[in-house]
User: Which sequence fits this backbone?
């Protein structure tokens, strides 16, 4: 299902940004100044990692025109994207991630 949303990501928890999105490009941007880790999984089980291999570090930092599989080539059948605020630095209630995909 197409999405164009701002997703609130509470501190110390993985928040699902997509659901079973194996194809199609994603535009992703950090909407506030709280850095987040990104991780991909196959399916809807949250990651067990404390942090993800990719990070969004500052307002406006993000990617566009890339699939989850292109950004996470080491995750077999990656189709679900997750975000987790990286640290308590600049904590203002969590991170806000803007995501858009077809």
Assistant:
């Amino acid at each position: 299902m197409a999405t164009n949303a701002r997703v609130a990501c509470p501190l110390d928890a993985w928040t699902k940004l997509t659901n079973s999105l194996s194809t199609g490009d994603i535009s992703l941007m950090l909407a506030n100044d709280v850095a987040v880790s990104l991780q991909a999984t196959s399916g809807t089980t949250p990651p067990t990692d404390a942090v993800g291999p990719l990070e969004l570090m500052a307002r406006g930092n993000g990617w566009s025109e890339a699939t989850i599989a292109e950004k996470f080539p080491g995750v077999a059948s990656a189709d679900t994207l997750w975000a987790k605020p990286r640290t308590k630095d600049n904590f203002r209630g969590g991170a806000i991630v803007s995501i858009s995909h077809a």
